[in-house]
Amino acid sequence: MIDMAELIAVLNAQDIELSKAELESFIQGKCTLKERLAFFKASKQEIDLIKKQSVLIKLIAEKKFETKLNEEKIINLIQQKEFQNLFKEKKYSVQVSFIRENIAWLNPVFIANLIDQGTVDLAKPNVKLRLIVQEKKVYFCFNEIKIKANFIDEKKLSFRSSTSLKAILSRTIINLSQARKNKSFLDCFCGSGITLIDACAIGCK
User: Fold this and answer.
1) How far is CA 188 from its chain centroid?
2) CB neighbours (10 Å) of residue 27?
3) Closest alpha carbon to 62 in 130, 125, 120, 5
4) For residues 190-200, b (16+ Cβ closer than 10 Å) or e, as one string?
5) Residues β-bridged to residue 34
6) Burial level of 115, CB count in 10 A (0-12/13-18/19+)?
7) Cβ atoms < 10 Å from Cβ of 66
8) Closest Cα to residue 132, out of 203, 54, 39?
9) Whole-angstrom distance, CA of residue 139 vs CA of residue 65
10) At what angle do helices 16-26 and 44-53 cross, to 10 degrees?
11) Mind spelling out the 3-state secondary structure of 48-89?
């Protein structure tokens, strides 16, 4: 992924504002929010941090093109030389994600039929194209990274009680505090200690 590229993050639908706050704890600067999508720029180091620590971000990808949700405009964009050259002599896959309701005609087969370069390979693609579709816009994204939430498995903590902090909330608090590897982390009201254990899991002292 290109350093300081224009990126899109797909946020947790259950708590968009909290997901936005978590994202901004990892990057230098603010992100722009449009429904479940956050638009931002980040360095490679910041992207690596999101991959390692985030629990609320579902996916991030590099935004290369955007257009209105209109069949003619989508066709015109894909037929541009700049777009086609991204697939030249490449194996590629196409996925379409809808933030709201699905649109039947806007599907991977429709998009793949418009790409004259390269060949479709769902098993081992060199290029992964993901369309993220909002109510009025379509974003064409590449170099996606799916974020797998990584936090303490509560079921393995024998000392955890019914009043203990949920593990996902624990990690969110740690991220919002901008805790980082090899940095000190203090929890004055540690209770059963889940937050401290989770902080240790990411390398805090």
Assistant:
1) 32
2) 19
3) 5
4) eeebbbbebbe
5) 37
6) buried
7) 16
8) 39
9) 6
10) 130
11) HHHHHHCCCEEEEEEEEEEEECCHHHHHHHHCCHHHHHHHCC
Q: What are the φ/ψ torsions at residue 201 (nearest 5 degrees)?
A: -65, -25
Supply 13's token pair: 């639908």
Question: Which residues is 10 bridged to in the sheet?
Answer: 37, 59
Position 180, amino acid: R
The first and second tokens of residue 111, run together, are 């998009």
DSSP output for 145-194: EE-------GGG-TT--TTSPPHHHHHHHHHHTT--TTS----TT-TTSH
Instruction: Please state the separation of Cα 144 from the chain's center in Å.
Output: 8
Q: Tokens at residue 144, please?
A: 């996606």
Q: Is the pLDDT of residue 22 over 80?
A: yes
pLDDT of residue 191: 76
Higher model confidence: residue 81 or residue 185?
Answer: 81
Rounded to whole angstroms, the Cα distance separating 175 from 53 reads: 7
The whole-model pTM stands at 0.84
For residue 157, the model assigns a pLDDT of 58
Which amino acid makes up residue 204? Answer: C
Give burial (CB, 10 Å; 0-12/13-18/19+) of 101. Answer: exposed
Dist CA 106 CA 87 (whole Å): 19
User: What is the distance between the alpha carbons of residues 174 and 177, in angstroms, rounded to a whole number?
Assistant: 5
